[in-house]
Batch of 4 targets.
Target 1
Amino acid sequence: MGKIISEMSLEELWQLFPIFLTEHKAFWKDWYVQEETFLKSILVQTARINHIGSTAIPSIWAKPIIDILVEIPKECSVLTRSY
């Protein structure tokens, strides 16, 4: 049986979870819009949903991971909907 993640060295973690940068891809915005639509459908109340991070900036290279910030009002219960 292999090691658990907390026992792995940094080198082992880099091999298991490599991070690489790529030129900006126009479809990243479409990916964000799809996720934003999904989040709005399951979260009853949100203050804002934003595309953040390097994939939101067209002029730079980025990790191909879409970062999303969801702001939920303090008075809102996230568990207001059953799935």
Target 2
Amino acid sequence: MGLQEAINACPAVAILRSSSAARFADVSDVLVEQGIRAVEFTFTAPNVADAIRKYAARKPADVALGAGTVTTVEQARQAVDAGATYLISPSLNVDVIEEGARLGVPVLPGALTPSEILTAWRAGAAMVKVFPASAVGGPSYVKAIRGPLPDIPLVPTGGVSVDDAEFYLVAGATAVGVGSPLIGDACQSDGDLDALAERARRLVANVTRRGRRR
């Protein structure tokens, strides 16, 4: 499944960021069981390409697996070679966007201001990660950006919580990226997977709520 299909099914990208990727696959299994359809393994974890490769080989077909915190062309290549089907960056790096196009995968660069967002879109971004969204007003900022830039798909990330995710969608976001408020301690060896499942259930219910969209 591609990223667009995944977020059509559930407009939330689960961001797995930890000092170790050892539990990323197990955490993803829990998320997927609750209805999440897009997961992101970040390059801040050592050996994340290996984790991507292993999970890509056994994940359900209706799950989109991406690489996050992709800041270099080399990381983009490693991620796609390992099986990532989309790339997400914290910043606007045109080289990464162009490499994603060459590799045939969508790239979601990070941008914040209207100028950065428009530059990212014109450079070939599939969607634009609005980061850090909560630091500049959250849903109200997304709504303000959508006014002059209504045709650019926005994925606000950074401080988005399980309970306020739906308000970003109401404001006009295409999807949301949710990290630590969703994942909690689950990526740690003794992390609570039952608590993760409960948060994931709540997130999926919130972002797929009937009548939520504009």
Target 3
Amino acid sequence: MSTLNFDLPKDKSSIIKVLGVGGGGGNAVNHMFNQGIKGVDFVICNTDLQALEASPIPNKIQLGVGLTEGLGAGADPEKGHKSAMEAIEDIIEVLGINTKMLFITAGMGGGTGTGAAPVIAKAAKELDILTVGIVTTPFSFEGKKRKNH
């Protein structure tokens, strides 16, 4: 079962959304939300059901419900990509609610952020939404596998 909660009424929804993808993006958005930033709608997308449930963000999309069964993408960007494709209708639904500008934040090097963020960016482009990507890259000490993702 998908964790979906789109508390974004069209007449009250901000035209700016900040969307966190995966663990790194979710952590960044959780921090912004906890700082009390106003005037934007926060959304998180993740394959990890525990991370979604632990987040204070009201608007959540679980990616890859059938593929990952809520257990994350296991640092596999292809699994992250497929998970986003599995949830593309939910992603488009949330983006379609009064969105004029989208900030996507994700960590590159894991599975969900690396694989799903480009899928979400492409969907936003097709909806004619001005989109800005803010990503973090792995530290060199995190190893070649993460760096090459």
Target 4
Amino acid sequence: MAHKKAGGSTRNGRDSNPKYLGVKRYGGETVKAGSIIVRQRGTKFHAGVNVGCGRDHTLFATTDGVVKFHTGGPLNRQFVSIEAVANA
């Protein structure tokens, strides 16, 4: 004989892990080749000059330089480029 009434089940109690998306390096910041600039779902930002796009649409620097955000193209998209700095 049970001394406590059986508790009902619940359909709550779980949550997905955070994905840590967003801009990681802002305009004017100096980056090295391979640095992640933006983590995103889809292409909110598009790869510009000296920027590569990964399989999950992560944008990364392909050369050392300074990050620059700008808009352009026929659809006025947001681009991220790297302005290479000359070695002194």
